[in-house]
């Protein structure tokens, strides 16, 4: 009882940390997709801000559904827009609210994971509060599940699916699942969010199907379950396809109404000709090895050997060890059964505990490993079966100190340091651009970003009608290209109200000094760690270490 009380208090503390750190906010920038798969697009559509639309959301190449961005970032931006229009909050739209409001909604949604763990732990033979502490204390929950990734939604839908397929009778035995309709809705919604969701849904769906088959004596009832699943899946797909078709094409309700007055068949033909099915476009693009190579190719074992360890640390390693033991045991059983001529044994799909949870963990991992492009965030949904497996009463959580240190380091690295200067830099530039001095006398700003992640332009809070701010993303341009661009901008520096800023990590500062330009008003934002341009170890041991772990905002000197 005392240990349970401590675990509850610890979980409450970690839950408060999750919400508080979101509001602070977290400065770490994990990957451009956390902005460009939802908030950036919705800021342009709903708030009419200058943004960069990624290729997946262009009408010529629609590969992402717009439904989830609208229901998440879209809703939060609509709320702050309405508050400002009603004069309830005159300055509601600023870089802070643009960043934090979608993250806050995702942070609230992240507690679906906690609810799922609490519901699932007794069913899968895990200690509920032990599992909750492991979940809430993981830096994956603290950092990744509070960001606006489609992978985050994928993890939440996977958790809900596991809850729906795992039900228990009062007697303690597995109960027949009665949520066929909801299972169909969630499976289809997950597929439209990310087609890779099918890799995560495979084992829960097989488990659900096997329970139905084993518990039914009537073929009519069996067919009824599958019909409910298919009908609800088809209806959900219809909703997504219709929404995406309206968003990505020029079809409007007025056009449809005028066409409907002539012929219903014409309406159907018009919708069919312009129908947008984003998952198929996504799969068509990603199944092309050439396209995947553009985003980076990795060895097929990267998820097993690198990404799993990077996300889950010792828990992933222990799961691999347990998986090999289970496989060895199964092979031995198989050999003994064949020796006795009784046929192969079945996989432990119905067992409620470690063997089945390992399948829920490793089967999606194996399917995702078939693709050459492998990023750590693709695996974040697997935290649910992993903490349930690790919190089994028969499995004492060893290496507690190592687990704590690992998650502290992960939270510091990805929540604070990784590209950690870029978001504060955009906050600073937004205040500069919208300062009273700038608004009273119009100024022109050119912002050159080099060797940073793609800057989300929405955080500058500039309307599409404003033309006085230009953002130039030079990505990882070489020193010669960078100097040439700066020198060219300096030579065209004629107007008195023009300001040119170069935003670069400290590790590239030495390259800039060799260019034929001078700067003024240097601003150093600390900390900022660029893994693409890592700091030089000898410099970290000197007094110049802050420069190596910082992001510079350099204003070009027009008097040069």
TrEMBL record:
Topological relation to the membrane, as annotated: Multi-pass membrane protein
Keyword annotations: Endoplasmic reticulum, Glycosyltransferase, GPI-anchor biosynthesis, Membrane, Signal, Transferase, Transmembrane, Transmembrane helix
Cleavable signal peptide: 1-22
Pathway stated in the Swiss-Prot or TrEMBL entry: Glycolipid biosynthesis; glycosylphosphatidylinositol-anchor biosynthesis
Enzyme Commission numbers on file: 2.4.1.-
One GO cellular component term noted in the UniProt record for this chain: endoplasmic reticulum membrane
Subcellular location: Endoplasmic reticulum membrane
GO BP: GPI anchor biosynthetic process
MF-aspect GO terms: alpha-1,2-mannosyltransferase activity
Transmembrane segments: 153-171, 191-213, 225-248, 304-327, 356-372, 378-394, 401-422
InterPro entries registered for this protein in UniProt: GPI_mannosylTrfase
Pfam families to which the protein is assigned, alphabetical: Glyco_transf_22
Family: Belongs to the glycosyltransferase 22 family. PIGZ subfamily.
UniProt-recorded name of the protein: Mannosyltransferase
Gene name of the encoded protein: Pigz
